[in-house]
Fold each of these.
Amino acid sequence: MPIRSSVFSVVALLTGSLLLGLAVAAPVPSLQFAAQSNGVTEVDVELVLAVDISFSMDPDEQELQREGYMHALTSTEFLRALRDGIHGKIALTYFEWANVNDRRVIVPWRLIDGPEAADAFVAEIARAPYRRASRTSVSGALEFGAQLFENSGFKGLRRVIDVSGDGVNNNGPPVTIMRDEVLSKGIVINGLPIMIKQQFNSGMDIEMLDLYFEDCVVGGPGSFVIPIKERDKFKEATRTKLVQEIAALPPMPQVVPVSSKAPRVPCMIGEQMWQQRWGN
């Protein structure tokens, strides 16, 4: 065989082996990487807003609650905290809840990366009609909120459920069981107990709702409760909570840290009150 032909044969053999090796080995890690990153947007926080619409929330409270979120999401403080984040954007969804079977998404997951996106999110909230439903399942709200993260399409440095309401759990699983299950998934739970009623005479209200939220509902690294006890403080408290959540700031003076002691309010108090009143 001529020398020239022999050289070409050796080169062809080496080249073929190299290409074969690349064809077999190279795609595996690249395909795995593509599967992990395809369609997922990185954000500073994935935040679920869980809003109480049970009958214990009177129309005035419902309006204050919704306006509080709408005002907070377009506030200068919120937008500044958003801009100062590592990614400068968050993922946000808003749903309403009452009993364990009544959980309705009002605004699906949206990317919030500036004033325009925040305005559009608020406009979606504003278009939704007000409604109310029976019973109060805080545990159901936590369960549903945790499920929403599974298909968010985002990857947050933190995942947070922000639950607001004016009553205790009286429907669905015990709230502490669901709280612990949610926390085991690395999700933080923060609370906004609404305590602006002048009288607690419905048979299902408790005066120490803030303690109930602290000891029975919220949890996770940096978790906190901000009770609202005055109507004119509603917008300020909601804004403070949202800024705290997206900026992951140390607790502010008006923020009540989570208690590590035994519950000061029985965590089954809502179920007990419901049984005493209705017998089931």
Amino acid sequence: MLLAASLGGSPSGPGLHFVDVGQGSALLMIGPEGHAVMVDSGPPGAAEAVIHALDEHAIVRIDLWIHTHFDADHVGGVARVIAGSDGVAGSADDIEVEVFWDRDLDAAPDTQAVAAYREVAGDRRRVAAPGDRWEISGLAIGLVDTGAPEIAAENSRGLALCVEVGGLRLLAPGDLPAAQAAVSAAACGQVDLLWAAHHGGADGTSEAVLAAADPALVVISAGRDNPYCHPAAVTMARLRGRAVWITGLAGAGPLAACPPLATSFAEQHRVVSGDLWLPAGP
């Protein structure tokens, strides 16, 4: 499928809205009949960006909100977003959420972000696992195998999503390490779009991932001021020859904090200023 990216104007119809939350992840998916699914919610300080994205689509109700795992840059914004534009929980402009999916709160980090999520989700939480599927009117999300070990760090405990919206297929492996992302890619199969694991970090993408998913486009969510030099130069080199859109970038100039990035960019690589909207045709 030929993918067309829109960086401005008012997005409409079904598609994928990657929200620029800096160093973190947040994705709004819109189905052909207007149903809305959120994946992650970015860090606490970026909740206003998510609220703005919802406003752009006139979304006041989210049918499903999935958090891939419990690091603060993926779950931190949820409570503020639900409170709506006025920031007051329980007021008329609160965002309604039908159900939340997560990996289970077992061994979740003891952080303020997780505590806030637990409180706002309440009895709407559902523990999700590989094999679970949610589908409605041209928008389908399946959770695929991650090969997670029994004892693992938070990134390795995360969920991986295989998504179909309109005529578009997406693999979203959260922050999974590359070996696990390859398992998820094999389970999902070929996709139009890969949301690169771990913000384009060196440990998130491999030749095995790319061979299994074979994406026409790779999207990388990374903060402009992130201290991790995401995306990694080795990742960008591995993606040479593939179309890549990056929603933020650590310094890439020869005198900047991440100089190797200056030489790892290819002709097909682009840095996006702000959100990224990808329409999904029928």
Amino acid sequence: MRDVIDEWAAIAPGSRLDGLRGLRPDVRAATQAYEEAIFNGESGLSSDERHAVAMHVAELNGEAVMATHHRTRSGESARLPALLAHAEMLTMRPDQATPEAIQALLAIGLAPRDVVMLSQLIAHVNYETRLLAGLRLLEQTP
């Protein structure tokens, strides 16, 4: 089974990286399943908002391929500035996460379950960027 990581890292079937990833098919399948749940699952966050947040997190991590992928699916909303600010805080300054940060999200109309979904989305995209970075390093080693 191939996943978005294979696509973004341009991992060719049968390559050394494909073989390494194939050692843990459960992780590959779980990564893809989580991707689908985050971006296609039920949520009070619109698809446009989810992809805009993902694009922002990818940009913060310097992942141009991921950012481009999400840019084509993202859109605007009135609450997007608050969502992006939260994403930046959790990605760059997680030690600044406070109950007040959660209250700011509730104040723009997110339900508690949407706050959880937003945090899961941010964590997932950060995980993907780190996985891609690690795979690129492995690709460069003999």
Amino acid sequence: MPRVNDLSRSLTALDQDSTLIAVIEMGLKSWQVGALVPGLTRQPLKKLDPDAAGLLHQLERWREEAALAGRVVRRICVAYEAGRDGFWLARWLGSQGIEAYVMHPTSIPVKRDHRRAKTDRLDVSLLLRAFLGWLRGEAEHCSMVAIPSLAEEDAKRPSRERETLIGERTRLTNRMKSTLIRLGVRGFKVTLRKAAEKLETLRTAEGVTVPPHTMSELKHDMERLQLVKAQIKAIETARFERLDQAPEEGPHAMIRLLARVMGVGMETADLLVNEALSRNLRDRRAVARYAGLTGSPDESGKRRREKGLARAGNARVRGGMIQLAWRWLIFQKDSELTRWFRQRTADGRKDVRKTMIVALARKLLIMLWRLVTTGQIPDDLVLHPAP
């Protein structure tokens, strides 16, 4: 039986004679909009400019056509696939009194032909068929994505920007090291604050100074590296300021509670709360499924095998939890989860440890979810003193 927040089917009864159903295939230069209009035997399909006002005008035109056919449209439902455009259109349509839904792309069944025809017109037909089945309350047609508010989306930006900057810092550092190694220079720390000043004293394997063009490249990379470091520092400082100014506001209380757990740093706490734990997840299975920490069985006839992680959830949460699981074994040595992991990896085989660390990450994520949502603190959990 579906739950209240079950997005795999609609819980509202569908009266198709008074409901205008539309789907949008969103492109960069145009939108293909298909609809089921009450009173019309045809299924209209319009190509529009990517403009919300134009879409609203077209929906009103279809409402008028339904009125001319003797039908009164009391409900308008619009859906589109999650993608580059995000959720702004769904929020805007909702403010205009229109039911807007965002479909999970991987939940829509498609043909498995070797050379499947694929056009925007066919995609609109496929989306419309799946959306109609979802509105009727039928299972396995498609599932919807929870539409976050603008504030919830914005809360994810600092962590994601920092992740990008960390990758940029690593890329710059590795490129400078590779440049120097190519000249036979080893052991020089390019991350030092005064590294640019010491470049002039370097000597290559041939005993000469660094060539001028290479010297210029290294100095430019060091300037970019210092800028990236400053931006990372600014993001971290701003985060602490926000937490200090409003410690109990929104997800800040969850972040502060998680950061008290030994082994969970502020970055990990911010990532987990804003990406996963602050969402209205149904139960522990939904928590693990959202992180992509569930299996993908392959069973057919007598064949029984496991293909590994589903990888269908949030990749940031999944990667962060696997890293946290390894740290958990160091900082929470006496916890029940650590003992559970040690018992099942007593033989020391690497393949078993790699498999079981994913299982530990799943159990750990569920435990942290219960911690921040219900305040359930395990007796063996080691916490930092409250500030």
